[in-house]
Design a protein that fits this description.
A three-stranded antiparallel beta sheet has the order 1-2-3. The protein has 194 residues and is mainly α. Helices cover 38% and strands 5% of the residues.
Length: 194
């Protein structure tokens, strides 16, 4: 057993677990250049809207279990740190492993981090498109439902249902499950009809 696994602490860590990671090419910060990577994850879209919400809208968001999004702060993570973490992450096993330490990203941990409650109703991601046809058209701009259009719908929503539908699509598309492009997925509308 390796040190730290309940064995003899004087015993050395196995060689393959004790090696420092090889440096990734292109990670240098020559001439104070700032390195960026593309991601659709973005808290700033919601943060910019929060001051425009009235108390009733904030209450609806809290009641729906999205209250944590109202208190999110702007942050940034250095690209070097992200790349280093990705090197030790295994998306298939949902874990981060560094030497003998392992963090498993299970349902409960993700729920705590995101501030979401478990529910009994499964999210419906498919169904008859005729049931949500009018809603789809409200969000579409061209062939896609762009985040910009979703924000526009959110700003002009007058009732709880339309406001929460737009807010949920925005939260899914920018924080919880961002797509690869700058748009929201309308497949969630099947769960947001009623």
């Amino acid at each position: 057993m390796a040190s730290g696994e309940g064995g003899d602490p004087s015993e050395p860590i196995p060689e393959k677990m004790n090696k420092a990671p090889k440096p990734l090419k292109g990670l240098g910060n020559k001439n104070a250049e700032v390195e960026h990577f593309k991601t659709q994850f973005s808290v700033h879209r919601i943060r910019e809207l929060v001051p425009t919400f009235v108390d009733a809208q904030k209450q609806w968001i809290n009641e729906a279990g999205f209250g944590l999004l109202l208190a999110m702060t702007e942050f940034s993570v250095p690209v070097k740190l992200v790349r280093w973490m990705m090197k030790y992450g295994d998306p298939l096993l949902c874990e981060f492993r560094l030497r003998i330490k392992v963090i498993v990203f299970n349902r409960e941990l993700v729920r705590k981090i995101l501030g979401l409650e478990n529910g009994d109703v499964p999210v419906k991601l498919s169904g008859d498109w005729d049931d949500v046809k009018n809603l789809r058209e409200e969000y579409k701009e061209g062939e896609r439902a762009k985040i910009k259009k979703c924000i526009e719908v959110l700003k002009h929503s007058k009732d709880k249902d339309s406001f929460m539908r737009a807010f949920t699509l925005l939260a899914m598309g920018s924080v919880y499950c961002p797509e690869t492009g700058n748009y929201v997925s309308l497949k969630y509308l099947h769960s947001l009809v009623n």
